[in-house]
Structures are given as structure tokens and as C-alpha cells.
Amino acid sequence: MSKIINPRREFLKKASAASVALTFSRPSFTKPLDTKKNKLPQWRGFNLLDFFNPVPENGRKTKTAYYQYMADWGFDFARIPISYPSYLSFDRSKPIRPDEVLQFNSKILDEVDEIVHNCHQQGLHVSLNLHRAPGFCINAGFEEPYNLWEDEEALEAFCAHWEMWAKRYQNISSKKLSFDLVNEPYKRLNPNDQHSPGGPVPVNEYRKVAEAALKTIKGINKNRLVIADGNGGGGMAIPEFADLDLNQSCRGYFPMHISHHKAPWVFKDPESLSEPNWPGTHNERYYSKSDLEKHYEPWVALLKQGVGVHCGELGCYNKTPHKVFLSWFEDILDILDDNGIGFGLWEFSGSFGLLNSGRTDIEYVDWYGEKLDKELLKLLMKYA
Predict the structure, then answer these.
(1) CA 268 distance to own-chain centroid
(2) Domains of the chain, earliest start first
């Protein structure tokens, strides 16, 4: 008779054999008394990028084993940023037309269903996010037919997409699924130019969009948990939304010269940048943990107003020296944890990720053929 193998037991045995130098139980430490109760659970996990690219084949596919790795390492959250063109059927050799933005591709939608199912099988809460919405994305590279913040037709399409998702998942509990309306609102002079000047979306324009989508979603499931990303690219709390039935999502990318060092989609001449330090001086300004604490003060103020807060994205590009990254990142995680705010690392596998990050300044552990950043995992598990 063949021996029956317990997958979880084999998984944990592999952890020991790989000499990851980690214990797979959570570290015991005394947390400070929680005086800023967060309405949202302190979910901790990762962004899964299967459909964040407008071209579905260009997403970063989540391997089946990844879901179990996340759960076995103590994480309970997966944010799924989706670019709406990825689940449409249209002629991709031409810019999308307004009459094509509701041509849903049932095959792709079924694939999204499978990701949601795989997450739930491992006990991961899923936050579904429109990374690119009709008329807006923080990243250029796909020509939009209109402007979400200004055009009524774009807003109608935006709500139609959320209506589709709300109906599709209307019977899934908010304990297992939430909706994150639109990724990192920002308004550029030229929305199709990545380096065009811009800034926060005028609050009245963002509020109009958020209220319309919220009404659509709540009309289908009044109990659905809904999240709005911070303004100005995600980093700015929105106290003007405190009266709405909305939670808010911050970011863990401040300051950008640490988190996005040499990122070509952020800096026009990335190779001209000097190597960062943490704590340290950048452009004649000294940055330390106290600057991070000040950065998150508006988010802590939202908690005190009874608004739920989660950090939907955080992390660091692989060009930042690893020691600098970990020093800065521990300060970020410590501040979030002190305030009961959970997080979603961008990403699980890739240049910001826990696996296969493409760094040249660390020694990876071979994890079932994947390159595991053991020091980053150790730090994340401290707060999982």
C-alpha cells in the first residue's frame, strides 16, 4: 500500500530542510493596548497580479501552490488588482471604444472566479480591486476613451462593471470578500502620459465617483464591505469621505525614493539616482521613522473617526539595497501594526515580491524551485 502524504506536514518539513532559519509559528510579543480600534480586520497578505495588465496573457499568474504557501506562513489576505480590459472581448490592435467596454469575456471571468475560490479554500480574504477602471489608471500604457473623473459616460461604465462584479459575487459573505473601488486615484494633465504632471483628484470629483459605485454595489448586497483607496495615488487619507459607508486603503510606499528606487515608470532618468539609505538624507532632507509616523497621522485620525483602514499595497522595488529596504520596511510594518492596520504586499512573486524578486544583493533559498527571500519572509511573519 502506498503511503498517504499529508501535504501540510510535508510542507512544514520542507521548511526545515531548506534551512530557512525561521520557525513557522508566530513570534510571541506583547502588543500595545489598542486605543485606536480599527473597524476592519487586520488582514495581512499579498497582491496577486494575474489580471492587473490590460492584456490578460501579460499578467503574473498565481501558481496553485502559492495559495497554500501564503496560508501556511500565517497570512490571511489576497488583494486582486484587475485591469478591466483584461476581462473584455474587443479588437486589441486598436484603442478601445466606449461601445466595447461592457463586452465581458465569460472565460476570463471564470478564471477570476477560480482565483477567488483558491483563495477562499486557503482561508484568505479576497479584496477585488479595479486597478484600471473605465477612464482611469495610475499607470499609462493603455489608451482610454474617456476620463473617469470628468465624463458621465465613463462613470456609467465604471458602475456597470461594479454591478457585474456585485451580482456575480452577491452571495459571498463580506467576511470573505470586499470590493476596492479604484486603484490609487490621481489626476494627470495628460492621462495617457505616465510622466505628465498631476496631483490628487479634486475631492468633489472623487466623491461623485465613489458614491455612484457605492450605491450600485450596496443596491445588490447592502452588507458588502467596500473600500476606497487614498487620494493622490493612494497615500492621502480622505476625511471628507468619513460620512460614507466606506473604508479606506492607504499605501506603504513613502518615501518613494526608498520604495521605488530606479523604477523607470516613476523616474524619467532612473540611473542618475544616488543610492538611498534608511534612515538617511535625500535631496538635503533627513528621513527617519518619525517621518513615517507623521505620514500616517491622517490615517490614524481616520481610525479615531470610526473609519476602517487597511494598507492595500506596500513594498519595495528590487533596485533598493536589500538592507536599506528591510530597515525601512520594518519601520513601516511596526507603525501599521501599532495601529491595528493590516497590509497587502505588492506582490507575492516578482520584482517587489517575496519570491523571485530578481535581486542581485541577497542569497535566495531554493523553495520548490522558487527563489525565496528568507529575510523578507522572516520580517513579514513577525507581523502575520
Answers:
(1) 24
(2) 33-353 (3.20.20.80)
